[in-house]
Specification:
Layout (H helix, E strand, L loop, with lengths): L26 H13 L3 E6 L4 E6 L8 E4 L2 H19 L28 H5 L1
Length: about 120
């Protein structure tokens, strides 16, 4: 068999060429992923043909890569909103509680301006 070539398949000698049609795998799912990618600017949305799942990658700076996956486009959109909310909650500092001047109890109001430890009006008296 070494040195002999065998012609097989569509390219056989003497056979007419056959037209090969392009097959669009999972067309509706891919179009849903493209539509979701266009509507959400802060995410890159993909559809995996091998896994048959939707994936979203965060397009904003994060400490580590943020990748979310779901079986449906609707489920992925919901998980993306949850991830954005969780990221905002963890990224913002917790509100500082201020001491209440009347009885020493801590106030639940957030700090508007930084509070200094010095009290110049006491030093002047």
């Amino acid at each position: 068999m070494i040195g002999r070539s065998r012609h097989c398949g569509r390219h056989r000698d003497g056979q007419p060429l056959t037209k090969v049609y392009r097959r669009l795998w999972d067309g509706p799912a891919r179009s849903e992923a493209e539509q979701l990618d266009r509507s959400c600017q802060s995410w890159s949305v993909l559809y995996s043909l091998g896994q048959r799942r939707f994936y979203a990658l965060a397009a904003w700076p994060t400490p580590e890569p943020l990748i979310i996956a779901d079986d449906t486009a609707e489920g992925l959109a919901e998980r993306m909103r949850e991830a954005e909310t969780a990221f905002i909650r963890h990224a913002l500092p917790a509100p500082a509680s201020l001491p209440d001047r009347r009885d020493g109890a801590r106030s639940q109001a957030p700090a508007v301006a930084p509070q200094h430890g010095r009290r110049p009006y006491r030093e002047a008296a």
